[in-house]
Amino acid sequence: MSDEVKQYSLEEIKEHNTAESVWCIYKNGVYDITHYIDEHPGGGEQLLDAAGGDLTAEFDDFGHSDNALQILKKLKIGELRMEDRVKGKKTENKEKSKGCCAIM
Ligand code: HEM
Description:
With 104 residues, the protein is of the alpha+beta class. The protein has one domain: Flavocytochrome B2, Chain A, domain 1, CATH 3.10.120.10. The chain is 26% helix and 18% strand. A 5-stranded mixed sheet has the order 1-5-4-3-2. A hairpin with a 2-residue loop joins strand 2 and strand 3. The chain starts with 6 loop residues before the first strand and ends in a 24-residue tail after the last strand. 15% of the residues are buried. About 10% of the residues have low confidence. Bound molecules: protoporphyrin IX containing FE. The site of protoporphyrin IX containing FE has 18 residues, from helix 2, helix 3 and helix 4.
């Protein structure tokens, strides 16, 4: 069985922003939460607001339980493709001058 993870573009995910089809992003994973909308203890509104976009901050801010994460995991359909991931945090070039003088 091939275990290839499907890659989705941001454009494609954005299109799934109506009650008919709700996709969202959580930590670069792509989730089809369409059928979870009605079951969400926090209400469907919250999820619909995040439809087609990234709900990482909202999800983490609430401090969801491990169970919530397990539910989310089961709804995973793929991952956000590399080129659409937030580049953000440029790793600072912490080059310490090593004062490398070759001692002869
Ligand atoms: C698909 C993603 C989500 C899943 C699977 C999910 C799942 C859950 C679950 C299982 C609970 C019950 C408490 C717990 O186990 O932590 C819960 C509660 C809650 N969630 Fe979510 N949630 C999601 C996204 C969100 C988002 C994006 C928000 C906010 C914008 C949110 C806001 C809340 C709130 C406010 C409650 C508390 C409801 C109450 O106890 O009255 N959730 N969620």
